[in-house]
């Protein structure tokens, strides 16, 4: 594992624990608003983890592609992933 991925990994592990808690809450028929609140928090954790991964990608792979003289592929990758956010 790359050391730069540690923050994202920690967020994802926290999200995994939170997902397990949301599943338990749903199985126990807990109050819907409480479940929805926890789902929103879970979504936020996953977005933060993804942002961390993408930031690292921009700072390393994309940046390096400009010095290697072939940035088009990496720029296209970023445009593609950003398109998924817009949908």
Strand element count: 0
Supply the number of helical segments: 3
Distance between the termini: 31 Å
Text of the CATH class = Mainly Alpha
What does this structure look like?
The chain has helices at residues 6-27, 32-68, 72-86. α1 runs antiparallel to α2 and α2 runs antiparallel to α3. With 87 residues, it is mainly α. The longest helix is centred in the middle third of the chain and has 37 residues, at 32-68. It contains three helices and no strands. It has one domain (3-86): Metal-sensitive repressor, helix protomer (Methane Monooxygenase Hydroxylase, Chain G, domain 1, Up-down Bundle). The protein is elongated. 85% of the residues lie in helices and 0% in strands.
Descriptive keywords:
mainly alpha; 3 helices; 87 residues; Methane Monooxygenase Hydroxylase, Chain G, domain 1
